[in-house]
Amino acid sequence: MTTAHPPIPANYWLSSLIPTTNRFEHLPDSTPAITESSSQPPEQKSPPIFVCGVQNIRPLQNLLDQIARDRYSIKLLGSDQVKIQPSSSTSECPRKERSAADVKCCNCGGSHPTNYKGCVVYKQLQQKLFPQLRPCPVPPATPATQPPPQTSFSPDNSSPSKRFLRPSRRLFPTPPPAIDSSSTPCSSLLFSFRSLPSGIHAGDPPPAYGYNVKPPHGPHHQNSLMSSPLRIALWNANGLAQRKLEVETFLTSDNIDVLLISETHFTSTSFFRISRYSFYDTQHSDGAAHGGSAILIRSSLRHHPQASYSTDSIQATTIQISDASGPLNLTALYCPPKHRISSSTFLTFFRSLGSRFIAGGDFNSKHPWWGCRTTNPKGQQLYQCVSSLRLHPITTREPTYWPSDPRRQPDLLDFALSKGVPLHQITISSHLGLSSDHTPVLITLSSTFSSACSSSSLFNPLTDWHAFRLLLDQSLPYNLPVKSPTDMEAAVQTLTTTIQSALWKTTPPLPPRPPLTSLSPLIQNKIHEKRRLRKNWQLTRLPADKTRLNRIIKELRTLIQTDRARRTSDYLSRLSPNAPSSHDLWKATRRLKAPSPYISPIKDDAGR
Fold first, then answer.
1. What are the residues facing 233 on neighbouring strands?
2. Beta carbons of 584 and 574 less than 8 angstroms apart
3. Mean pLDDT of the chain
4. Angle at 563 between CA 561 and CA 569, to 5 degrees
5. In this model, does residue 68 exceed pLDDT 60?
6. pLDDT tens digits, residue range 579-605?
7. Beta carbons of 495 and 482 less than 8 angstroms apart
8. Top-confidence residue, 99 or 396
9. Beta-strand (E) ranges in 239-394?
């Protein structure tokens, strides 16, 4: 431990015994006389004010300018924290801040600092020093890449917040300690800050996702692109089989494209299917009905399943889609809470996902970096992996796990980690659409994705074969010379082109598939009431509110089952065995009695 030594007095006794010479002794002394300091203690400044959860900084700046323009200054600490501190210069302070007239650039003489990158002379010097550098081309503005519109400040805005992630060195800093507003002279200013909006809103919700119509048959047949935002939801089901009806309703009502599911409780004998969606799952490594992960993706999206990852500590399901930047892996994972996972295990898993991925699910890992209330050992190991690979957490910073026991505190367990995905394309928000002990998290990805490849047949059930026969007789040449291999190739090419052209002219495109059946108004009202009661229970955690929530969940499940039985009965009543062209009854019977086709695995030369 070091101790501070007292200063040496001016009349130190040893100073008179040491001869010194100073050539400046004969010069006049221009040092001002040292006056004794005042015995009054200095006036203490007010402590700074910390405001957390700020997403739109402009209303805060306007409010600060109106209330205390000369007394307070604002400083941005992170993506959602602001520090408001008293100004260093007051009317009594002799030291004033520099004005714009005192600042002068050494390069051009302008009223800005010398290191200002907008200086004209500075730009010319940079071009001479680095002539090989080329300016980065600015991509054209598209509806998918335009920034969100600025929203007006409204204290009564109560719509659900949608936070935009920003690239920052400290994405999710730890909130500072709270300050008692009664001990500060600006309690009115603190009260005004409470009326600020808690998040930035992205304007209108994305348009409803309709069924992509297959391109018409013809020479311009190619893969289509989906320009609508991709809506990804991640959710811990805590048993998926018994929640099939509400999952189907959730996918239809909220236009979900991809659903990343954790804790499915599936085994090798489980079966799960939803119309117009493809299902991929990974069971626990021991084969028991616990843990597991799954992915539900819209069948109209072009995708490919990847190798699954199944251990005692991590169960992950991965599919690959394509956007404008290339392949993108989407992974649903589940990490059981009882297993310890080292950072090396996390590193091995995330490196297997490639250079571009979004991995979301129930990590059971707590750390303040992604918004948790506390820290656990698994969260510390995951944080080391995230820092090492420079992954970006995609999180709402709100609790996603709501235990039924009121003695246990809610916390954030469901989030996603991304790599190689621009953060300005990601929007995240909480959702109240499903009824397990975890709330879903909705991620909107603004990009252009490839749709599923349509069939490339030359004809369909609407082909007019009589017109095709007449057109082929009129356009097919019969006197082609075939005397050499070149003539043979030309004749084959002419025949092929003539047949294709005749089929394209006599084959109209198939009509688009009908949209999914919309929900009845009664079911929609019940869904809205369930979400309202769920939000109320999350705020109060009272047993009476939990009872009302359970009652409305049971009523909604009964309504969905009744509506599904009614639609099935209507479909069966419309079947007719006497229809000469449609054969509805025969087609329905064939679908029920058709055996499941066996898809053989792809093996290499060694048989693996």
1. 259, 442
2. yes
3. 73
4. 105
5. yes
6. 655 567 777 777 666 666 655 666 666
7. no
8. 396
9. 258-262, 277-282, 293-298, 303-305, 309-310, 315-323, 326-334, 357-362, 392-394
Q: Which of 445, 383, 391, 439 is nearest to 164 (CA)?
A: 445
Sign of CA dihedral 440, 446, 449, 452: positive
Structure tokens at 486: 């070149």
Angle among Cα 276, 277, 281 to the nearest 5 degrees reads 155
Q: What gap in Å lies between CA 449 and CA 442, rounded to an integer?
A: 18
Angle made by CA atoms 225, 227, 233, in degrees to the nearest 5:
105
Q: Whole-prediction pTM value?
A: 0.53
Tokens describing residue 83 = 């520090």
- Per DSSP, which regions of 544-594 are E strands? none
Q: Which helix (H) or strand (E) holds 50?
A: strand 49-52
- Asked which of 161-170, 344-353, 503-512 is least confident by mean pLDDT, the reply is 161-170
- The amino acid sitting at 322 is S
Identity at 96, one-letter amino acid code: K
SS3 category, 564: helix
Task: Give φ, ψ of 85 to 5 degrees.
Answer: -130, 155
Q: Which segments within 302-459 are labelled E, that is strand? A: 303-305, 309-310, 315-323, 326-334, 357-362, 392-394, 414-419, 426-430, 441-445, 449-450
Q: Which helix (H) or strand (E) holds 588?
A: helix 584-593
pLDDT digits (tens, 9 = 90+) for 266-302: 988 888 888 889 999 999 988 888 899 999 999 889 8
Q: In what order do the strands lie in the sheet with 72-76?
A: 49-52, 81-86, 72-76
Q: What is the DSSP letter of 443?
A: E
pLDDT tens for residues 8-59?
A: 454 444 444 444 444 445 445 544 444 444 455 556 666 777 777 666 766 7
Cα distances from 515 to residues 4, 228, 279, in angstroms, run 81, 17, 20
Closest CA to 54 of 14, 81, 24: 81
